């Protein structure tokens, strides 16, 4: 007699138990210690005053990057390539159709620029909140009809603190109050285009207490998101072979095997320039979509012209490496040089080919070679696929975002949802050989 019914029942029971455990964990997060009445009243008064006071900074708001003062913007934009005017022009001309960039600059009383900010007005429909072809549920119809606007202080097309640049030596709490004031003014200015109920600040280092507390005074609730996986590059790594030599024998063998398995399957990797990216943008975009449409949350979808235009604008600070099989593209990965940091940017691959050869893992590994070629000190690979990135030697750097609803009463609900947010914990891996000094000390 077949034991299939028993196996199905066992799986159903296991799934139900997992659901109960997750619900219990979420409810525990909602528990709070008994409040101190006097402290609570003082805090409420402090927050009320902060939300109804101006920062004292002078603000400039703009719909286009070419409308702001170029010299003033550039004096702070040098902190990241993703605030450079060449990049922002690409974002305006080739960015996702549901995103409208907004810009803000803050000046002090001496008319010196002390903060620049990239905002995005994002239109979110229900189709972006579930996987295409996914399992149907009772929520499908209500979600499908959803259409909301989100004001984001950040950039949906990149992760990390790359959308705000603050002047050094200036009171950070004051500048973050200026960020909140700019968000308020932009939301009010765009009201004729449709109300933006939610404002989000994305992303900042989770350890930045001043940022969290400053935003909390303005009614924002912070939540830690999945970490950025970062590989620290050693100064002695001048070639990819130097990186391989630093790995333990097992990890080094696995790294070399990826390349051998791709070669055995007839897959080869090479770098292409902006002109070839432009000529083959539809092929590249189709590979990107195979990865993108596998995600349940897709707040923004790239246009086919975005990556080729970015390659043209950034020049030597941008690398696109492709995987080919018999002249057909089966994968690509892009890398961006951002000062001392290299960013393993967008990736795409053919799922059928990836089943025969490790295309994804080989492309991911190639970003280490690109980062070394940039002369970077660190490689940032973002917050997905934590396991393979940990095997490369990446360590997690916690990130956080802050959310606020325009209706103060609904911030209680936002706060509850924020506290129940969960994310996968990154695995711990040690792929590198121990240094002699460390081994002797141990």
Folded structure, characterized:
This protein has about 450 residues and is an alpha+beta fold. The chain folds into 2 domains: about 40-230 and about 400-420, Aminopeptidase (3-Layer(aba) Sandwich); about 235-375, Gcn5-related N-acetyltransferase (GNAT) (Aminopeptidase), CATH 3.40.630. Helix content is about 40%, strand content about 25%. The protein has 17 helices and 13 strands. It has helices spanning about 5-30, 35-50, 70-75, 85-95, 140-145, 170-190, 210-215, 240-245, 250-265, 275-280, 280-290, 305-315, 350-355, 360-375, 385-390, 410-420, 435-440, and strands at about 60, 100-105, 115-125, 145-155, 165, 200-205, 220-230, 265-270, 320-325, 330-340, 340-350, 380, 395-405. Strands 1, 2, 3, 4, 5, 6, 7, 8, 9, 10, 11, 12 and 13 form a 13-stranded mixed β-sheet that branches. Strand 9 (about 320-325) and strand 10 form a beta hairpin. Helix 4 (about 85-95) runs antiparallel to helix 12 (about 305-315), helix 6 (about 170-190) packs across helix 7 and helix 9 packs across helix 14.
Summarize the structure.
By secondary structure, the protein is an alpha+beta fold. The chain is 42% helix and 24% strand. Strands 1, 2, 3, 4, 5, 6, 7, 8, 9, 10, 11, 12 and 13 form a 13-stranded mixed β-sheet that branches.
Topology of helices and strands:
Blueprint: H1 4-30, H2 37-51, E1 58-62, H3 70-77, H4 85-94, E2 99-107, E3 113-125, H5 140-144, E4 147-153, E5 164-166, H6 172-189, E6 198-205, H7 209-217, E7 221-232, H8 240-245, H9 249-264, E8 267-272, H10 274-279, H11 281-292, H12 306-314, E9 318-325, E10 328-338, E11 341-349, H13 351-356, H14 359-374, E12 378-380, H15 386-391, E13 395-405, H16 411-419, H17 436-441
Parallel strand pairs: 4-6, 11-12
Antiparallel strand pairs: 1-2, 2-3, 3-4, 3-5, 6-13, 7-12, 7-13, 8-9, 9-10, 10-11
